[in-house]
Amino acid sequence: MRSGGLQSSWALTRLCKEHYLLFERPAAGSRALILHVETGETPLSTRSEFTELSQTAGLLPVVEAVARRRTPDPRTFIGSGKLEDVKYLVDEAECQIVLVDQDLSPAQERNIESTVGIAVRGRTGLILDIFAQRARTHEGKLQVELAQLQHESARLVRGWTHLDRQRGGSGAGAGGGRGGGGATAGLGGAGETQLEADQRILGQQIKQVSRRLEKVRKGRELNRRGRSKAGVPAVSLVGYTNAGKSTAFNRLCGADVYAQDQLFATLDPTLRRLELAGMGEVVVSDTVGFIRKLPHTLIDAFRATLEEVCEADLLVHVVDAASADRAEQMLDVFEVLREIGAAKVPCLTVYNKIDLLDEAPRIARDAHGLPDRVWVSAVTGEGFDLLREAIAERLSGSMVERVLNLGPHEGRLRAALYEMGAVTDERFAENGGSEAHLRCDAARLEHVLSRYSA
Known about the structure:
Rossmann fold; 19% strand
């Protein structure tokens, strides 16, 4: 398998073609029918979000349909009657793909495809496609590849019985010889079915990618340990996709992270250093945005990245204050945080996009007097001075004030204290020494003193 991560292996390529009944993956701009399958009351905003996902994937939604069912039909999920309606719409609008806002079983997808005559994509498959397009770094590509392999592996286990046919131990096709099917790469010994061979190949690939990601995870863990020993606090930005999280990250840190008004514009994890008054240096991370029903395969594959969230000293939850669905989106974010084990990490809520509302930048405090909400605009920069103050105050639980007498020979220690922003006042003595008044994180101060003190 190529180290780049997104180049599909032979097995994954062949399996995808088998699964899609030899339909090619739709090219950018392909005409799509959007099928919303509802088992209860579904807000219109949920429908529009799935339509926006299709646009983010580069497809062109030309017609939408709604199927309502109390329970899914085991063969087609939507039932034979509705499926005939979908086929009519597909033919009328000359669609090239059907996108279903549910996770379908392999058999259900095949049954729908055999009726409508074009490819069918479920919710998880569509999101995986978007992630594959967005990944830019080696780590991001590996994580997407792992999610794709796990997704295909699960689908093999759950229903690809049409591949359950035995092949000879020589690895030759059923016809054998010249023009009779040729050799089948990766096929095992006598009696191994094609399904078993596919499962084995995918299993090997999953192990290979997992090993590479484990090295990434260990590297991140070592970096976190180093920052922790140095007393550098960690802040992680989280939020619903398209809440303006990466724009806020850029505004906060003076960074240049890719930020666009589209779902999952940022996929790869990014870390930047930030100097806060009275705190010195902190490390801020920007990670992938969350979404309703985020696929478990993605959560598992992105575990190494999401550990930055779990190990943070403070979460900054960026919320789209202008969204009519912000309450539901906040609950979706909390659910993902709970699932990855980050529900108990201290959190500061940031209501972004006040430039679209009649809101002024401000800080609100909890019953203990700590800042717990800040109103900002990442586009105009309004409120970001308040946000920096709020972050510093929330991180200041370990802050200490101390007076330190510095000798004239302790210039390196003095420079380090100034570099970390710890010195609030300094009075010089006649002998060239000074009395430095400090306010800083206790762990960082001890680290600096142990390193530079005589």
